[in-house]
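Hi all, long-time lurker, first post. I run a small reading group and we've been trying to get comfortable going from sequence to structure in the token notation. Rather than ask abstract questions, I figured I'd post a concrete chain and ask someone more experienced to write out its structure so we can walk through it together at our next meeting. Sequence below, copied exactly:
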Amino acid sequence: MSAVTDLAFDPWNPHFVDNPYPAYAELRERGRVLYYEPTNQWLVPHHADVSALLRERRLGRTYLHRFSHEEFGRTPPPPEHEPFHTLNDHGMLDLEPPDHTRIRRLVSKAFTPRTVEQLRPYVHALAGDLVQRLVDAGGGDLLTDVAEPLPVAVIAEMLGIPHSDRHLLRPWSAAICGMYELNPSAETAARAVRASVEFSDYLRTLIAERRAQPGEDLISGLIAAHDEGDRLTEQEMISTAVLLLNAGHEATVNATVNGWYALFRHPDQLAALRADPSLVPTAIEELMRYDTPLQLFERWVLDEIEIDGTTIPRGAEIAMLFGSANHDPAVFADPGRLDLTRRDNPHISFSAGIHYCIGAPLARIELAASMSALLTKAPTLALAAEPARKPNFVIRGLAGLRVEVG
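-- Answer (accepted) --
Happy to help. Here is the structure in token form:
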């Protein structure tokens, strides 16, 4: 076992957050599993281990299906955080079988490949409109003008949220996602709790309306979804809708701005992409690998596990470093090089195993739509100012990305 207190791994250091990849290389050299005292977690930096542990049933996103907090050696969350945990803990991302299996099966009935494919024309038309407005203005903030409104509008369209209410979604989502950072502050927790209450109340009202008057939207589909007598409870529907919104746009927003910032810093790759738009599919995969939107994914040790001779006890927490795994030279040739033609690209930005992102096909459509529209309608798109990174480590993104169109 190795401790990492003497390394450059420091999730609260702006210099580390700006570029964590050199520190990841140190972690990989140090070992396969390393204990990090500031967060009381075991860090796993290698691709092979992360990929295997995402499929390991001795680990879980929750432990409450088998143990109480006390039995597991954990302190229950403060009572004032209850609204956040009720919302979060009933979503399938934070559940294990059999509940995860049941909910994912029922959600899949309303979230089919056909449903996603039917959205393609809407996604491309919306991306084209957003990019055209950016072009007409001579530039702007790629984050707020294109990257955010596209996936938020798409998931809101799927869920059937009225246009007049959609401005509420992004602030709620941002507040809730603050709780996924390491050791969130009391202020962050208070914002997340408030947003959880407001968002849940809003969806409860919307679900009641759809029960009375079903539509063609996903909320109506979740109400109707059933299999062998199983149905989603109201709380499961609320938690699923929030999860689909949060997971359905956070990664896409950050992949868009992280990706374009990487392209601006690699003009040869951007020139190659502009010369050959058929590279868009492999470019999207490479950009998600190169600067990973979700850097860390946590799981609990439900039953003792051994990694490279180190025994990790029940009750411990493992932090799988997606960003490090996606730069592992054992899997990716010259991983620090951005190569939009990279074909062998088994990145894990969408996770793996039973918690593989159910929205990955939609995310790829959204990323391709915005990239294609920007390549076509804004061929002279250029960086107007160096961006600032958000202080977050786990969910990696920019505070903005100012661009200009010549």
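A couple of things your group might point at:
The mean pLDDT is 93.
Residues 234-264 form the longest helix (31 residues).
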